[in-house]
């Protein structure tokens, strides 16, 4: 087992590392994020970092990033047949400063050394994915949704948004067509076919319609409408909703399209 290689892949592509970030000014385990007092303090700090105007905003931003890390968990099952030890007690979220760019960011740290190898079969992968969502992802999301008073659906949509990004990254990391096919199969399974039980719900909470709209500057090029709103428009300085926001009306999107075209043709 080459943990150095695994760590390099996760840190470079999925915002997860075992050594953590430099310049960390706030850190909390996912376990404590499920406790209201600790979670409130962390989300308040994250809210300041992203200049949020409402308490729901850091929650949507958080799960968009966490979705990328979740995709890394699934990718490692296929690319390296290894279970990254992600759980509420072994993973922490870190807010840190990037001195070089005078900016701040968020990433995740895994503290456990209990990395497990497996046989890479479909049955083995589905078992690991099921356990990860049942014991870690779902309880964390439900807890934060309740804390900030937002529908869980909104956060699942953001987790899916990050998850889709990470899945595309994983496809580029695949060494062959067999690995790409396995990645596609597992992505399809967890987002469309997996039991509702994994999500503490009456349905698969990652099963969102895949709606496409035309790119504002490239006619004929279609792009994905976000599953749910990221609430960017509720941050300081935001002038409008994202062009791919599902909350945008047809008239609002047409107006935004004209604004974008004007901006790029100046």
Can you walk through the features of this model?
The protein has 266 residues and is an alpha+beta fold. The chain folds into two domains: 197 residues, no CATH class; 53 residues, no CATH class. The chain contains eight helices and eight strands, in the order αββαααββββαααββα. It has a four-stranded mixed sheet with strand order 1-5-4-2, sandwiched between helices. A hairpin with a 7-residue loop joins β7 and β8. α6 packs antiparallel against α7. The model has no long low-confidence stretch (mean pLDDT 96).
What is this structure, in a nutshell?
This protein is α+β, with helices and mostly antiparallel strands and 266 residues long.
Write the layout of secondary structure elements.
Layout: H1 3-14, E1 16-17, E2 24-29, H2 30-33, H3 36-50, H4 57-79, E3 82-83, E4 91-98, E5 103-110, E6 116-117, H5 122-148, H6 152-173, H7 177-193, E7 212-214, E8 222-224, H8 250-264
Parallel strand pairs: 1-5
Antiparallel strand pairs: 2-4, 3-6, 4-5, 7-8
Strand content: 5-15%
What is the overall shape?
A: globular
**N/C terminus separation:** 54 Å
Structural class: alpha+beta
Number of helical elements:
8
What ranges have pLDDT less than 50 throughout 5 or more consecutive residues? none
Order of helices and strands: HEEHHHEEEEHHHEEH
Helix content: 40-55%
Please indicate the count of domains: 2
Kindly report the oligomeric state of this protein: single chain
Rg, Cα atoms, Å: 19 Å
Provide the residue-averaged pLDDT.
96
The largest sheet has its strands arranged as: 1-5-4-2
Largest sheet: 4 strands, mixed
Topology, number of strands: 8
